[in-house]
């Protein structure tokens, strides 16, 4: 089957994404928080928003945002500490609902998953109907709302689940896929971050239609290994299967700063934010790993990495932070400034046997990585 032709496999795939999951759980369990702007995370100078309620998002509060920035945008913002053990319990309830309909469930994190219902266990035969049943059961059993994307492949289903949030559903049928993708801004393509979008804009590529107009050779010249994914995705094509036992290789993220970090204090303060953000992601994914890697990019764009592996899985945030700080100390002091810092946990449990399909990380961003301007 050619990558330039529609996906003829005609799978029935649902992507379920819980609405403001952590914050919604807190509002469910504490009625005094309902209808108010809520952020899960620390309120200290070094705190980071792990999740924000929709009331808070109206003020521009987003996950991974520094708490001081969030508070500045929303003075009435209420900070609550995370309760990951509760979030995990709710996540297990939700996954049990998924498995009533299919054994092909691929969780991406505690609050989202793909479900292949091409052959559904209840014999319903209609993916849209199944998605509505799942959403209704989630609401009944947990008191929470979920949004769903229904389509013939993973790429489009995931994008569709974000179309009508919160508490909505979007269905993209096979004959609609190419036109749907054509109308998307390139930033909606998973793996296209701010820097890549900026490069695309300079090439006059702003939408899926603009991407589709490019040859694969052109995309290879400008976007390297991502070219095949971009070529297929811009045509609404994605042949990947939903894998029930997918094993990730790493969890991490990086932050690009608008102003270079020069002083030791600035470096340490920025690094503490990254520790908080990445550890939240590690807990959200329930990951266990043995290798911590620091990445730094200097003002002149030189890049360095430092890694440390242990003979055991990193026990908790304190150990993760201690290793990270030790790695940071190895590149200090900084003479010319740092424009990017990142941390990654790898050598994850079970990852040694994983065989990732080409382009998966670019398409799904399975690891909750971040790359944003400060």
UniProtKB/TrEMBL annotation:
Annotated localization: Cytoplasm
Sites where the protein binds Mg(2+): 17, 111
Record note on cofactor: Binds 2 magnesium ions per subunit.
Keywords: Cytoplasm, DNA damage, DNA repair, DNA replication, DNA-binding, DNA-directed DNA polymerase, Magnesium, Metal-binding, Mutator protein, Nucleotidyltransferase, Transferase
Keyword DNA damage: yes
Cofactor entry: Mg(2+)
Active site: 112
Marked site (Substrate discrimination) residue numbers: 22
Boundaries of every UmuC domain copy: 13-193
MF terms (GO), sorted A to Z: DNA-directed DNA polymerase activity
Reactions that this protein is recorded to catalyse: DNA(n) + a 2'-deoxyribonucleoside 5'-triphosphate = DNA(n+1) + diphosphate
Domain of life: Bacteria
One Pfam assignment: IMS_C
Region (Disordered): 351-374
Enzyme class: transferase
NCBIfam families: PRK02406.1
Subunit description: Monomer.
Family label: Belongs to the DNA polymerase type-Y family.
PANTHER family: DNA POLYMERASE KAPPA, DNA REPAIR POLYMERASE UMUC / TRANSFERASE FAMILY MEMBER
Role this protein plays: Poorly processive, error-prone DNA polymerase involved in untargeted mutagenesis. Copies undamaged DNA at stalled replication forks, which arise in vivo from mismatched or misaligned primer ends. These misaligned primers can be extended by PolIV. Exhibits no 3'-5' exonuclease (proofreading) activity. May be involved in translesional synthesis, in conjunction with the beta clamp from PolIII.
Protein name per the record: DNA polymerase IV
